[in-house]
Amino acid sequence: MSELLHVSNVTAGYGDGPAILDGAELTVEPGKVHCIIGPNGAGKSTLLKAICGMLKVRKGDVLYRGESLKGLRPDQVLRKGICFVPQERALFPKMTVRENMRMGGFSLPDTSNLEKRIDEIEERFPILKERRDQHAGTMSGGQQQTLAMARTMILKPDIVMLDEPSLGLAPKIVQEMFDIMRMMAAEGITILLVEQNALMGLKNSDWGVVLDLGKTLFSGPAKDVLQDPRIQDLYLGGSKAA
Amino acid sequence: MADILQTLILGLALGGVFALMGSGLSLVFGVMRIVNLAHPVMIIAGAYVAYWGFKLYGIDPLVMLPVAIVILAVIGILLYKLVFEREARSAKYSEMTVLLTFAVAMIVEGALGGLFTNTQRVTSPAYATDAIFIGDVFIPTGQLYAGILSLVIIAGLALFLKYSRFGYAIRATTQNREAAELLGVNVSMVALVSFAIGIGLAGAAGSLVSFVFSFFPAKHWEWIAVLMSLVVLGGMGSLLGTVVASFLLSVIAAFVGTYIGATWSTMTFFLALFLILLVRPQGLFGEKPELA
Ligand SMILES: Nc1ncnc2c1ncn2[C@@H]1O[C@H](COP(=O)(O)OP(=O)(O)O)[C@@H](O)[C@H]1O
Ligand SMILES: [Mg+2]
What we know:
A: alpha/beta, six-stranded mixed sheet, 10 strands, B: mainly alpha, 11 helices, 75% helix, binds magnesium ion, transmembrane helix (chain B), Branched-chain amino acid ABC transporter permease (chain B)
């Protein structure tokens, strides 16, 4: 089994505070959609922050293509090809949509093709083309999430980590976000998704990982995780849910 | 009628200068979340650069302006490195910097007083006492030059922020620091450069102020409230807001000065600051303050 990213037995926390993650395990395979589920406060967001360099990995290791990411800053992790879209979506509310897209290419060493690349992406997301001169902060939640996801594609990343793209969105819009995510995956981008909405998340993923109290409990093919009785009871609201 | 027009023109001319005085403060607040209480004393320092350039060598304050920018920007870099760089990583940063900038303001005031005494100074190039007449109204030439040049500098700053790569980085950091960092912006470098630009702008403002107002080291205390009212009304961190607020308050202060009395003119700014904080703390162009 080839693996792109491997998180082994990671301990991490905020500042000098207690360890929030303790024993987090994760294997990410190229081209697949991975979904981390778990109750509120389980440490899902913390895990993504530890991977992208926003939080220090205290123990254990994060290996990317066999190379440790420990101690790297977020911009260094980004330059290795791992994009992170945090829960808050990381947009600049008073910049236009187009300017937000340009910021997505800020880390490129050569920006001579940036405008062309943004044009290509706008073609695929008509709403972003239509709203290009509008301030990002004035768009709806779904449009903002679309912008945040589309913006990662400027860098042609290997891995995109999405923290709760469904947060605060109407069910119909949520499916649109998952469709965009699947489209990114179809282009060969490996996805690491965090979802509070376990059912929706797993249904749109290949692989499922269950995290609780900062520890990986269980992982497997998404449909197996969906069927697993432990998961059914804990996070999917009983056996009727699936 | 001529009185009203005259008052309006005097208000507008000073509005430009106030806008430049406030713009550096606004920029530094936007990027670093520092309310730099030492900003006005830096303007005084810039005024002394222009004053001595003229007094000792007869150099026009408009020519001294770029010199003042460079000198003050360098002071800004040193100050950032010595005082703010360590603080920038601390969570209690905002509260700490209020005290720190207050201390810096006192120290610089003391140093300026020690070096140049507390005598009132004003740079006096020929145009400073000249005026242009259009019919019944007059425009003091010094104020006109200072106002126009202020707007030119602010326009340059706005273009830099809007179009340059570094301008994008500054705006991104102002609006969402964490997101900027995630996208590869070196936010410490942005903070350093913004601080240097902000203090450099104080130097520019100082050169112009030096022939518009008389000044002495302790004068900055009066300006703190004036500048605070401008950036608070404009919406902390919004450059456009600062400019609009400057013209608005400056014109109001001019009318208060003409029709109520000169001593009440400055009170306009203090009263405005008080009212804005009560009624609309986010200012004209600012975000609603987060209560979380
Ligand atoms: N910035 C922070 N500082 C301190 N503790 C935090 C911070 N963010 C989250 N936590 C704590 O970490 C734990 C896990 O949070 P998080 O990773 O956000 O959970 P999840 O994303 O799974 O809902 C929670 O107990 C939360 O209180
Ligand atoms: Mg979370």
